[in-house]
Amino acid sequence: MDYLNYLRREKMPHIWCDGCGHGIVLKSILRVIDKLGWDKNDIALVSGIGCSSRTPGYVDFNTLHTTHGRALAFATGLKIANPKLHVIVVSGDGDATAIGGNHFIHAARRNIDITMIIFNNNIYGMTGGQVSPTTPTGKRAATTPYGNPDAPFDISRLAAAAGATYVARSTVFHYARLDKYIEQALTRKGFTVVEALSPCPTSYGRMNKEGTGADMLLYQKENTVTLEKAAGMVPENLQGKLVVGVFVDKEQPDYLAHYQDVVTKARAAAK
Amino acid sequence: MTETKLNPRIFMMQGNSACAEGAIAAGCRFFAGYPITPSTEIAEVLAKRLPQIGGNFIQMEDEIASMGAVIGASLAGVKSMTATSGPGFSLKQENLGFAAMAEIPVVVVDVQRGGPSTGLPTHVSQSDVMQARWGTHGDHGIIAFCPSTVRETYDLTIKAFNCAERYRTPVLIMTDEIIGHLSEKVELPDPATLDIIDRWRPNVPPEEYRPYQMTDSDIPPMANFGEGYRYHVTGLAHDETGFPTNDPVKVEQQLLRINRKIERYRDLIVEVEEFETKDMDTLVIAYGATARSAKKAVTQAREAGLKAGLLKLKTLWPFPDKEIEALYKPVKKIVVPELNLGQIAHEIEWATRRAKPVIKVNRISGEPITPAEILTAIAE
Questions:
Q1: Total of domains in chain A
Q2: Domains of chain B, start order
Q3: Which residue from A minimizes the CA distance to B230?
Q4: Is A65 close to B66, i.e. CB distance below 8 A?
């Protein structure tokens, strides 16, 4: 495939740092869309604020860069108003689960037919490396110079608990797995979530002495454990491991399917 | 709303219902909201009505999400509205600014109640009128209407949608608890007679489309998502193509345009109503629920031989400065009753350059201002 068919070339170079994993996620999204053969006119890519949220500016779809944390709210209106659109939200860990956490759990509960791809780099990159809801306890960030006193969210388990139809997590190192999960998410009806673990060497890696982008990818390679394997491991052995896999994959009516029942009843009542 | 037997266009209706019906008549087919007193009836009516007529109602998780959802729906080409009151209006401000910046037509209703904070949820106020003008960060024009009857609520809601579409901007309806909950007999116009305006659409091939083009009208044509015009929408400062820019010339060009596009059409947007203004020596300026007391006070003043007149503001923003300018010079004083501590009175002092004494009649207790209190100020 030719990635340039999907990129707004004149908007390059992108803002992402050397060694950032976000470009790998973007390529994965584009590969899957190319494979699915979707018309670019039918795709809306929506984001909030942050490094990952700059993605829409680079791709040749209907693109909407909204306010911090609110991408899902805008995307919900877009999807309801034009259900033919494939609505994809790209978000970061802070955007999705701190300022946008309420919209995240409610989009999952509502099971609106939107795919959300969360670029989780465990840090606020755009603003210079502040602690995020997925920064592990004890790790350093610009606003936790003595180590993070907070416990992190497990984004995939949060989405699963809130009712999403499909939830999966992959590292960017295992990009083939990421492709598979994004394809499954895009082809399932309902609220689907892919959490892509994406290294941030510039902020997170530097402050926590985790080396270059390449070093961080190697860490992913050597410390990834599948859900199936993790199920047989004791918690102590899972320390520092990246658990990947499909957390939820089920069939359930999406929001608009339920709303069709509302329409039927409303029309009958109006007669 | 209760339909009468004799004329199917005559109803006993409350202001909030008239707002919902006006929205439907204007073509609104998407509403996102969150329950808040005293605006909730607007959501309840639309929850019932919209699915009957091919529209969508959704109760979102909060006010912020409601504001985001209506912007998203409008971007897909569906006329959209949300309704709220004080605390919710505060929460909507950031995304309201987004709609102003990205030039997305939406209508936002604020049924004003007492503030600050949770304030007086079930009591009237007019204390959000300056927030309507300056509530978001940054400089942008805004349009705000203020009805004082049930029928005006209906008419101004239609006008709000028409202005949102014509000028590509968010439009506010600053009604209040009294007007929202006031039931009056109204005769609604035949929908076929209404003048309904839809957004100006591009007629160029997609590759030539510039979503924020500098046009003679200052209003760029708007393409809906999904119709073949793939473009970028952002709250960042952007150029004509819609993509972010830090170029100071381009940034300022666009920001000046979004301010200018409201101001240059102010004559089409501003509506006022005069009552007994000939030969007056006292000008009463009022709006919303307070305009009803003011009209009564002016009637009583005339009966008592006092030469009072009323200018009722149906548009608050852009401010009706020219309409005030045309009236105030012969009068001895201006009386401004309002349910805040003088928010619009301050604007009137500015518009009249303090050439006349402005007598403020204010109340922030949740009670309305009575005609007698305004009459006292007229007689003083």
A1: 1
A2: 2-193 (3.40.50.970), 272-379 (3.40.50.920)
A3: A62
A4: no
